[in-house]
Amino acid sequence: MFDFLKKKKSPIPLFEALGTDMHCHLIPGVDDGSTSIDETLSCLRIMQQAGYHKLYLSPHFNPPRYANDEDDIKSRFEELKAAVVADPELNIELLGIGGEYRIDGQFLDRMNQKPLLTVGGHNPEGNKESYLLVELSLHQQMFGIDEIIFEAQSKGYEVILAHPERYPYLAGNSKLLSQLKDQGVLFQVNVLSMSGFYGQPAFEKSMDLIRRGWVELLGTDMHNTIYANALLEATLNRNIQKVLEKYTFMNSKF
Fold first, then answer.
1. What residue numbers bound the domain in which 160 lies?
2. Domains in the chain: how many in total?
3. 5 lies in a domain?
4. pLDDT digits (tens, 9 = 90+) for 167-183
5. Domain-located, residue 186
6. Nearest-5° angle of CA 220, CA 9, CA 6?
7. Helix, strand, coil abundance in the chain, percent, nearest 5
8. Strand partners, 162
């Protein structure tokens, strides 16, 4: 009764606890993320309001659907960076450009042809490391994933698996995830998975992985203003607040 009299809570900069986002799709027109500079700037303003002040961009590399070229992506990144610097409302730093590479039958050939785009971080000795963000198919498990990732690690890449909570075929069986964790693969859970944005199975899996201590990074996986507004609402999500209070993540090292 009298719900209309209740004061609506304002978003808070909850994600200052993370500071840096290392997974988002805000280079316009290159994948299923932002479609324009204006949409990207709108998303960045909202991310800034939610507490982020640094980020790496990570467009999809998934031919033939997203047959992006590393050199072209670098050029587009510089254009976006100039637009961000020119926006008086933004005080958010674009640290660099990485990629979200699909593990498929073409991945090894691509990796052997040219250096892949990575997000940066620093190890305890202060040396910069190359973190390679990879994803799996959301529909069907591929055999030999562990061997492919081992090849990437052998080339010096620190491998990060994007959103392990979102692969349906792993929801009831974490044998592969356990194997990858034993290999030293870092896991990055999507922040919005913890709010139920991707559905109940992804929510439950994200919380299970976090409770096991298997999650080193949280990412927005930002695509557009729908995601951005959901992120702003998530700043008031008590479940996410508790996770950030209880657990420590590597985002601040980027």
1. 15-253
2. 1
3. no
4. 998 865 578 999 999 99
5. yes
6. 145
7. 45, 20, 40
8. 188
